[in-house]
Design goal:
Order of helices and strands of chain B: HHHHHHH
CATH superfamily of one domain in chain A: FAD/NAD(P)-binding domain
Helix content of chain B: 40-55%
Structural class of chain A: alpha/beta
Oligomer: heterodimer
CATH class of one domain in chain A: Alpha Beta
Radius of gyration of chain B: 23 Å
Number of strands of chain B: 0
Largest interface: A-B, 71 and 51 residues
Distance between the termini of chain A: 29 Å
Structural class of chain B: mainly alpha
Distance between the termini of chain B: 72 Å
Largest sheet of chain A: 7 strands, mixed
Bound molecules: flavin-adenine dinucleotide
Number of strands of chain A: 16
CATH topology of one domain in chain A: FAD/NAD(P)-binding domain
Strand content of chain B: under 5%
């Protein structure tokens, strides 16, 4: 069970899966420890009539409310934005919407272009081949030719627009604003053993069809077939170091709660932007009294979310929004790049979302005071059901050292391991951007024919993009990792998840996280002989 | 009909055209009772049901379930005003139970089945709507 391995990966989510698959060709002894289990798609909510109710139970977004045995609690009381994640083989991609836009070239040059935050230690062009490789592996649907991006290929045809998309497209065109069918990690045709999307609706409750590219159906089956050992129900407590300050393995608890020390030559952490700083901060030793790889003091600092605005429109005529990939329809990037005429730096993307199911419509009607109980109920409800469409708006978040993941002094998980605490404030820049974005979102919905609009900003549960807490950079005093994700302090320790982002961009991060993981794997493969010199 | 079922039938009554069923007649009372008890509201519910029965006896000399629809709704509103949160405390579990019921879904013109495995057809949409966007110069900043 605890034979030493060449490469130990902690976490089997978006990044751990991509990295494991890429490394498999080396035929090294590769082990991934994951605290969750394989999911059973036949148990996903859309297989039952109670699919909408399970959002409030075992398929909730917050680990605190969901409280599966695999979950660890997160104290997010001191943040207006709450953590959403999932802990299983596939990680948070089990719940993600699959919206898959890349960063823009300018996102890698924030300091140079706008004089704030930092540049990335490489360029869009450096990452482009890994984006392309990842698009193939994840099965990305979309349309080539988007003028918001440098030219790129897209493997599969786009997700259907439906009546929601067409309506919003006309609104965009009326205003002369950019829009494009979303890059979506959703197989719109059979792709690599995956069945095509049949428009079930709520991708964020797991895809029973297997069409959504969660990594349990994309990378993992291939990685396991190629010889990677994926051990589930194994929760890592800490990474251990030897007398030379090199990582030499991890202490973890197995399904029965037994403690093990797994030894390894190379350790790779892929626990996401909250789980990774938690693990590093829990890994204290003589050489690293403030947590592993933390000589800069920056582990857990510079936490970035994307502050979200949600704008929902009510329409008079029926729409088909309860069907089709809920979070993948179209993207709008008219306000993505910095414009000096605005009162904030950087920008945002519109992610057009579809409508609501019957339960969601009733609860929305109740919360907005639109649907009374009693004799007026049915007439009012009929004006809402199948008549909503809208968007979430993803705002770039800039890194600030006071936004942190630390260890909670009291809270622990089921194994008694200290749990993370999140402390986060919305910056002035983010508040101005959210206000601008919300107003433009309403303008778009009105141009599309909405008769009423409802705004929620910042959207409380939108702590699903977790970035910055072990940032990359060239200066060891201002960053935790170098430009390939290797710790400045510990040369056989790598981090590959969203923690590594120096800045956040204004798009969903997962294709970038995975491209980075593939790039780190490539670096390790090419430098195996000299890696530990 | 139990007191709770009769109350549910006032919160979501049958629609006048008979298309939408009443929540009480749909047999949801047990599920609602269970949901409320599950969040620690068993005593709260029992207390409120007793108060409604007492009010019905006081005002009409009969049980709540025997009242004509109009009287029942008016009485429920009166008691709800005196006991704020009474109806509100039932809405969340009720809306979930009612609107996920296959009969209700079918009455709305939906399929009344789980989304999987049949799924739904969806219009691909008219991609010529992209023509004005295609005609634009690159939007991304040169670096
Ligand atoms: C509701 C929702 C919607 C989203 N929608 C989108 C979207 O449309 N587009 C997009 O790009 N992104 C989206 N995301 C975000 C996306 O899921 C994440 O960016 C991505 O999964 C992060 O990858 P990761 O590898 O960093 O971490 P994760 O995928 O979160 O994986 C981390 C893994 O590490 C494991 N782990 C953590 N700690 C330990 C430990 N101590 N021991 C053992 N195992 C451990 C966890 O169990 C988990 O499986 C969404 C997320 C959510 C929750």
């Amino acid at each position: 069970m605890t034979e030493p391995v060449d490469v130990l990966i902690v976490g089997a989510g978006a990044s751990g899966a991509a990295f494991a698959w890429s490394m498999a060709e080396t035929r090294m002894n590769i082990l991934c420890l994951e605290q969750g289990d394989w999911m059973d798609p036949s148990d996903y909510p859309t297989t039952g009539n109670d699919w909408e109710a399970r959002r409030f139970g075992d398929f909730g977004l917050s680990p605190n409310g969901r409280s599966r045995p695999e979950d660890y609690p997160v104290n997010d009381d001191d943040s207006p934005i709450k953590i959403s994640n999932f802990n299983a083989v596939g990680g948070s991609t089990i719940l993600y919407a699959g919206h898959f836009p890349r960063l823009h070239p300018s996102d890698f040059r924030v300091k140079t272009l706008d004089g704030v935050a930092d540049d990335w230690p490489f360029t869009y062009e450096d990452l482009a081949p890994y984006y392309a490789q990842n698009d193939q592996m994840m099965g990305v649907a979309g349309l080539a030719g988007d003028p918001a991006y440098p030219p790129k290929e897209v493997p599969l045809p786009p997700v259907p627009l439906g009546t929601v998309g067409e309506r919003l497209a006309r609104g965009f065109n009326k205003l002369g604003w950019h829009w494009w069918p979303s890059d979506s990690a959703i197989a719109t045709e059979e792709h690599s053993d995956r069945a095509p999307c049949i428009n079930l609706g709520p991708c964020i409750m797991g895809c029973a069809q297997g069409a959504k590219g969660s990594t349990d159906v994309t990378y993992w089956p291939k990685a396991v077939r190629a010889g990677v050992n994926l051990r589930t129900h194994c929760r890592v407590r800490e990474i251990t170091v030897d007398e030379n300050g090199l990582a030499n393995g991890a202490i973890y608890y197995d399904a029965e709660g037994r403690e093990h020390h797994q030894r390894a030559e190379i350790v790779v952490i892929a626990c996401n932007g909250v789980g990774t700083p938690r693990l590093l901060l829990n890994s204290k030793s003589k050489a690293f009294p403030d947590g592993l790889a933390n000589r800069s003091g920056l582990v857990g600092r510079n936490l970035m979310f994307h502050p979200y605005a949600m704008v929902t429109g009510l329409f008079e005529e029926p729409l088909d929004g309860r069907m089709g990939p809920a979070g993948c329809c179209m993207i709008g990037q008219e306000f993505y790049e910095t414009d000096p005429a605005r009162d904030f730096l950087r920008g945002y993307s519109f992610e057009i979302t579809r409508g609501m199911g019957p339960v969601g419509s009733a609860l929305f009607g109740m919360s907005q005071g639109l649907v009374p109980w009693g004799s007026g109920h049915h007439d009012a409800y009929a004006k809402i059901v199948d008549r909503t469409a809208g968007m979430v708006i993803i705002c770039e978040d800039l890194p600030e050292e006071h936004n942190t993941v630390t260890l909670d002094p009291d809270l622990v998980d089921g194994h008694g391991i200290p749990a993370p605490k999140v402390t986060y404030r919305l910056s002035d820049n983010s508040q101005k951007m959210l206000a601008h974005a919300s107003a433009r979102g309403r303008e778009l919905l009105e141009a599309s024919g909405a008769v009423r609009c409802f705004t929620d900003a910042p959207l409380p549960p939108a702590g699903w993009h977790l970035m910055g807490t072990a940032r990359m950079g060239t200066d060891p005093s201002r960053s935790v990792l170098d430009g390939v994700g290797r710790s400045h302090d510990v040369k056989n320790l790598f981090v590959i998840d969203g923690s590594v982002f120096p800045t956040s961009g204004g798009v969903n991060p997962t294709c970038t996280i995975q491209a980075l993981a593939l790039r780190t794997a490539d670096y390790i493969k090419k430098n195996l002989d000299t890696l530990l010199d | 009909m139990s007191t709770l079922a009769a109350i549910l039938d006032q919160i979501i009554p049958p629609s006048p055209d008979g298309r939408m069923p009443g929540a009480g007649a749909l047999g949801l009372a047990d599920a609602i009772e269970e949901a409320i008890a599950g969040t620690g509201g068993r005593d709260w519910l029992a207390d409120n049901l007793a108060a409604i029965e007492a009010a019905a006896q006081d005002a009409h000399g009969t049980s709540f379930g025997e009242l004509a629809a109009q009287d029942a709704e008016a009485l429920l509103r009166t008691v709800d005003e005196a006991r704020p949160g009474l109806v509100q405390g039932m809405l969340f579990p009720l809306y979930i139970a009612y609107y996920q019921h296959p009969d209700v879904a079918r009455a709305l013109g939906h399929e009344g089945r789980p989304p999987h495995p049949q799924g739904y057809p969806l219009e691909k949409g008219d991609l010529s709507l992209l023509d004005p966007v295609r005609a634009r110069a690159p939007l991304y900043r040169q670096v």
